[in-house]
Amino acid sequence: MSQASWSSVDAYFSKMLVPEDGCLKQALSDSEAAGLPPHNVAPNQGKFLHLLARVQGARRILEIGTLGGYSTIWLARALPDEGRLVTLEADPKNAAIASANIERAGLSSVVSVCVGPAIDSLRTMVAAGESPFDFIFIDADKPNNPAYLELSLQLSRPGTVIIGDNVVREGEVANAMSSDARVQGVRSFLEMMSADPRLSATAIQTVGSKGYDGFSMAVVES
Q1: What is the 3-state secondary structure (H, E, C) of the chain?
Q2: In this predicted structure, what is the pLDDT of residue 5?
Q3: What is the number of alpha carbons within 13 Å of residue 80 lying toward its C-beta?
Q4: Block mean pLDDT (10 aa), the chain, length 222
Q5: Which of 50, 73, 94, 129 is the most buried (most CB within 10 A)?
């Protein structure tokens, strides 16, 4: 199978099952126009995250890595009226674009965009006694994934779902000798999940318009 075939199937699924509205399409368009890297999730992946959060009954969501706010909108739309989403973005330019996209979607009252290195923001939240989150989406710089996981656990409760994006790295995640810091960050992330008795986890490979990759899913058990 080829990238063209994967993209064609994704386009078919999205057309059949994932009707995007103007706010979502404009979020992608504005992000592209501003020169943001095309690292957003695909439409069907965004809908998948949305459904996962709904199935889990999430009222409080934490997103690590905002970019242009595309996945933020999908996740925020899964929340009940009294729900809250906190998203962390290191780059002020990205955060400004995301904030505009979130406002256009009518979600500014639901979403808080925190600007600055995610590790610093997470540590501040832990120190302040932030209430635990029900659903956490980790999609930022991969070398820091282990630190994001450890800090996320301090902001979790039994039953919290933790999703990690981009964990396959075109298959390189299975290469213990890789010199890529992103690959090694993901490997350490998965090793931490495996070794932590508080977590029950798995990982899935995916193909599609975003290439060959995958995601991890963990549930906090204690």
Answers
A1: CCHHHHHHHHHHHHHHHCCCCHHHHHHHHHHHHCCCCCCCCCHHHHHHHHHHHHHHCCCEEEEECCCCCHHHHHHHCCCCCCCEEEEEECCHHHHHHHHHHHHHCCCCCCEEEEECCHHHHHHHHHHCCCCCCCEEEECCCHHHHHHHHHHHHCCCCCCCEEEEECCCHHHHHHCCCCCCHHHHHHHHHHHHHHHCCCEEEEEEEEEECCEEEEEEEEEECC
A2: 94
A3: 8
A4: 91 92 94 93 96 97 97 98 97 97 97 98 98 98 97 98 96 96 97 97 95 96 90
A5: 73
pLDDT at 64: 98
Say what the pLDDT of residue 19 is: 84
Q: Give the torsion sign (CA, 61, 74, 13, 8).
A: negative
The CATH code that applies to domain 3-35+45-220 is: 3.40.50.150
Tokens for 121? 């923001």
The residue ranges of every structural domain in the chain are: 3-35+45-220
Give the pairing type, strands 211-220 and 135-138: unpaired
Phi (first) and psi of residue 192, to 5 degrees: -65, -45
Contact between residue 189 and residue 216 where contact means Cβ atoms under 8 Å apart = yes
Look up the pTM and report it: 0.96
